[in-house]
């Protein structure tokens, strides 16, 4: 039953025993394979045992999608743990074993990202660094900084001293301390290898070196009792600047020592027409023949490229392309406008809404609280800004569990006896109301009512107060920023958490893994794609090809690329066309 709807390649991946490296081209159904792999593996697990199956994802959204799909299949997900790689380290290594590490034995809290960013900004100014000067926060396996530059190392040393003084750890420390615990205390690895019979890693090409080390150490300690299932595509490795490493089969084999690993491939594309595939295959760095096998494989595609339009007429051109798709029966939510950098989203969204007032747009990445995703108050705000509905009950239940656990970590106390279960906390949240009409006032009122009900006096917990102030400071800064134009009323706040519909406007990074009938991508200019950082310090050709590969492979049928003129550097020099497009020999369509 589990295998009935799968292709032969997908079935082979699902039933394969042992360690597997699955190379999955765009549109090949890799998420589908992961879901069915989990379901298939669950057949061999006693639901009353302590054994678990793990699905590690790059984003929270992807992990929540795994739970949704399993539930839709009627699969009991009790023995499945899905979350981000950082969450895995926190939940399964740091929380249960922090007492074994001197740096954490007296307690710790996860640093709010915005608070940590403010510290870095302050230290950059102190050491005469520019705000845009990059700093590599990652650790090597031996605990040394990966950052090679002297001044940046000084900033990092002072930054970590500040964190230590406040008993805070950021995401990079989270990884390093996890690895250190596994290295110093091998029994932890043995325990984890006995618990996890299967560890699935989605988007493995975006995994940091320390995470390869953490996962492989658990698998190798199990000596075959714990299997590894890596899924990804090296041509979609666009997070190198964040430490992502697309390791080869040989490098992964080296991590696994004597344990064998087999490489499999998903080469069939259910998403795009063959013409779209043939076009984006130009940007492959690891050539794999990709064949269209979906129902639309032979549909006529439109691929256009405009490198003459001035940025002053850009909105008119994008609006024309949107209207053309709508006139040809393509739904709004099957149209996507892609930008290379997030700061370009605001202006284009505002202008398109004015130009096309009858068209709905989804630019939910502009939510004023979106920078606070790991803040305890952000997690609580999701519960107050979403309505109880059957289809998101499991999600709200999961959020509630996180809130209960996070408050316990911050206060070292329990909620009052009545509210120590997720179900009762959900009932409480659903029962609380406020007459406030402004988003910030509404959330403050709800937070105060909640704390009073569960018996938490926030005034005696400094970190709770710091995180709450940070949460609202970020919202205020976005509301006051004229480039964002974000509404402040509570109805608008709630709309950010509803399932959005309309023409999607997002970055090429933000839509990784998604697909649309029509993709319109602009800003394809040297300095944006590839980014200046890659031009000066990385591999600009590889970075450019991978970003173009990801952008173009989101399209099912229609692809419109734009390298507008009129954009300049800060010194007034005109931005040039992305070289990989400038030198392209392809017969584009006219529209």
UniProtKB/TrEMBL annotation:
It holds the Pfam family UvrD-helicase. The keyword Endoplasmic reticulum does not apply. GO terms for molecular function: helicase activity; hydrolase activity. Signal peptide: none annotated. Keywords: ATP-binding, DNA-binding, Helicase, Hydrolase, Isomerase, Nucleotide-binding. Transmembrane segments: none annotated. InterPro entries: DExx_box_DNA_helicase_dom_sf, DNA_helicase_UvrD-like_C, DNA_helicase_UvrD/REP, P-loop_NTPase, UvrD-like_ATP-bd. Residues 3-273 form the UvrD-like helicase ATP-binding domain. It catalyses: Couples ATP hydrolysis with the unwinding of duplex DNA by translocating in the 3'-5' direction; ATP + H2O = ADP + phosphate + H(+). It comes from the Bacteria. ATP binds at residues 24-31. Its EC number is 5.6.2.4. Belongs to the helicase family. UvrD subfamily. This is DNA 3'-5' helicase. It comes from Flavobacterium frigidarium. The lineage of its organism: Bacteria, Pseudomonadati, Bacteroidota, Flavobacteriia, Flavobacteriales.
